[in-house]
């Protein structure tokens, strides 16, 4: 568990607190609130943060229920340090259960390296914006530092975005439950500002974020995300495989429908599999998704929607190619690397997996070929070639 938490927090880097607006305080207090009869329209312009405690509602084009649109945006922050990670929260109305059914990014890769949306029991700070991550340090004693979610509270990734990925609408009847009957009481938006050249004038601000599409209509299929990843490092001038595998130990059936890959610049191919062993002890590998991670990092339809069951195994590989003369470690900055395979799924009339993360120590400590991994019929060529 310590390894899982440590690797999860690699998504966060050293940063400094940004300039806030009073409007965000209203959002933190009021949370996600249904507006009766609709409200003012929001846009992707720099003025959209004026509507932080309001939602738009409109009839869904594919169902006979109302879908709201909540602008969850950074409150006109001014990043002033490279590799800055900032978090901002919204408290979900605890008197109702909401179902998030779509994600509409309000960002470009010219500004935001990537964004993550966390579902938390409690946020990592009581501030409206904070420097998020255990790796974060500050010489400013007034700066708030913390993880996206509070230590000891429930924590899961709900959505991830990078490289100008388009919006994502979930399949009909599928939604992420938040609020009253969910462990997700807060949503926390994390934005990684890798380059801050456009903010050096001290007046240009940012409202990157996500417009959340949600409904109050109960969804029979609850969505979840399983994040597979590794630790480890990549030797100089070498092609390296970063691999992980985990067992499904909960007596549940999950139905995969989308996947997403993420690395930094050394990633060449990321692949994910369901592994099922037969009565003769032979592994059968079913490809869930495979992609060049340097293409738009959106959620793509899975290659196989066959259900994943108790005692199945989940496996992922990132094929990395380094032409650097130094070691590259797993870490949060652009000079580091990451190996992530996200699997989005739903359960039918039940709760998502309690397991949210599947991480290994990575190379040179862990490979699929390790004896204790107990894997056979490994698709070695297929997993590393498009």
Which helices and strands appear, and what pairs or packs with what?
Blueprint (H helix, E strand, L loop, with lengths): L1 H7 L13 H9 L25 E4 L6 E8 L10 E8 L5 E10 L7 E7 L9 E3 L12 E2 L8 E8 L5 E2 L4 E6 L6 E8 L15 E7 L5 E10 L2 E2 L3 E10 L7 E8 L4 E11 L5 E9 L8 E2 L11 E10 L5 E2 L10 E9 L8 E4 L26
Parallel strand pairs: 6-7, 10-13, 13-23
Antiparallel strand pairs: 1-2, 2-12, 3-6, 3-11, 4-9, 4-10, 4-12, 5-8, 5-11, 13-22, 14-21, 15-20, 16-19, 16-22, 17-18, 17-20
By DSSP, the count of extended strands is 23
Shape: globular
Q: Which band does the percent of strand residues land in?
A: 35-45%
Largest sheet report: 11 strands, mixed
Please, what is the average pLDDT? 84
Helix and strand composition category? mainly beta
Q: Poorly predicted ranges (pLDDT <50, ≥5 residues)?
A: 1-31, 33-62, 134-139
**Radius of gyration, CA atoms, in whole angstroms:** 20 Å
Q: Number of helix segments?
A: 2
């Amino acid at each position: 568990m310590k390894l899982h938490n440590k690797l999860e927090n690699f998504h966060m880097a050293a940063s400094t607190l940004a300039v806030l607006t009073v409007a965000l305080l209203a959002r933190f207090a009021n949370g996600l609130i249904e507006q009766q009869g609709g409200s003012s329209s929001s846009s992707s312009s720099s003025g959209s943060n004026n509507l932080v405690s309001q939602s738009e509602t409109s009839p869904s084009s594919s169902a006979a229920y109302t879908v709201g649109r909540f602008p969850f945006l950074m409150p006109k922050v001014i990043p002033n340090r490279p590799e800055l990670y900032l978090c901002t929260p919204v408290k979900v109305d605890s008197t109702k259960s909401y179902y998030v059914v779509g994600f509409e990014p309000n960002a470009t890769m010219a500004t935001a390296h990537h964004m993550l949306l966390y579902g938390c029991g409690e946020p990592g700070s009581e501030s409206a914006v904070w420097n998020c991550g255990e790796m974060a340090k500050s010489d400013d004693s007034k700066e708030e530092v913390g993880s996206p979610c509070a230590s000891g509270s429930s924590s899961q990734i709900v959505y991830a975005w990078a490289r100008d990925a388009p919006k994502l609408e979930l399949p009909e009847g599928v939604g992420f439950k938040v609020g009253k009957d969910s462990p997700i009481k807060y949503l926390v938006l994390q934005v990684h500002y890798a380059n801050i050249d456009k903010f050096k004038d001290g007046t240009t601000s940012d409202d990157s974020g996500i417009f959340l599409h949600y409904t109050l209509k109960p969804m029979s299929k609850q969505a979840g995300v399983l994040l597979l990843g590794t630790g480890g490092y990549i030797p100089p001038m070498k092609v390296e495989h970063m691999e992980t595998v985990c067992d499904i130990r909960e007596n549940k059936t999950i139905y995969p429908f989308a996947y997403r890959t993420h690395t930094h610049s050394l990633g060449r191919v990321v692949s994910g599999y369901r592994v099922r062993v037969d009565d003769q002890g032979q592994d059968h590998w079913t490809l869930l998704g495979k992609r060049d991670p340097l293409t738009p990092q959106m959620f793509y339809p899975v290659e196989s929607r066959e259900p994943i069951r108790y005692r199945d195994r989940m496996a992922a590989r990132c094929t990395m190619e380094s032409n650097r003369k130094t070691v590259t470690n797993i870490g949060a900055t652009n000079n580091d690397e990451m190996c992530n395979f996200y699997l989005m799924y739903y359960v039918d009339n039940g709760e998502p997996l309690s397991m949210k993360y599947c991480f290994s120590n990575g190379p040179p400590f862990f490979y699929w070929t390790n004896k204790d991994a107990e894997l056979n019929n490994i698709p070695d060529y297929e997993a590393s070639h498009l």
